[in-house]
Amino acid sequence: MSTLDEATDPWGVKVERVEVKDVRLPLQLQRAMAAEAEATREAGAKVIAAEGEQKASQALREAAEVVRSNFFNISCF
């Protein structure tokens, strides 16, 4: 900003603030950023799926234990 203020000083113009209204990224950079975001989403989805599979496996293991213990209790009679 000081560079702009210095450049306009000979005309008696004082620059106090500069605002950026629009930034346009090159298409290649937009694609790279989108690909990175997609990879991050996919990684998160894989973690969630793995956690779900782990919980399902634990539930099946517990159910097998219940069936096994009930089978032994019934077969003893």
Structure keywords:
77 residues; mainly alpha; 0% strand
Portion of residues in beta strands equals under 5%
Q: How many individual helices? A: 2
Distance, first to last CA? 91 Å
Structural class: mainly alpha
* Average pLDDT over all residues: 91
Shape: rod-shaped
Number of domains: 1
Largest sheet: none
Helix content range? over 70%
GO cellular component, one term: plasma membrane
Pfam family, one: Band_7
Protein name: Band 7 domain-containing protein
Organism: Necator americanus (Human hookworm)
Could you write a compact summary of the structure shown?
This protein is an all-alpha fold and 77 residues long. It has two helices and no strands.
Please give a structural write-up.
The protein has 77 residues and is an all-alpha fold. The protein has one domain. The chain is 73% helix and 0% strand. The protein is built from 2 helices and no strands.
Topology summary:
Layout: H1 2-8, H2 27-75
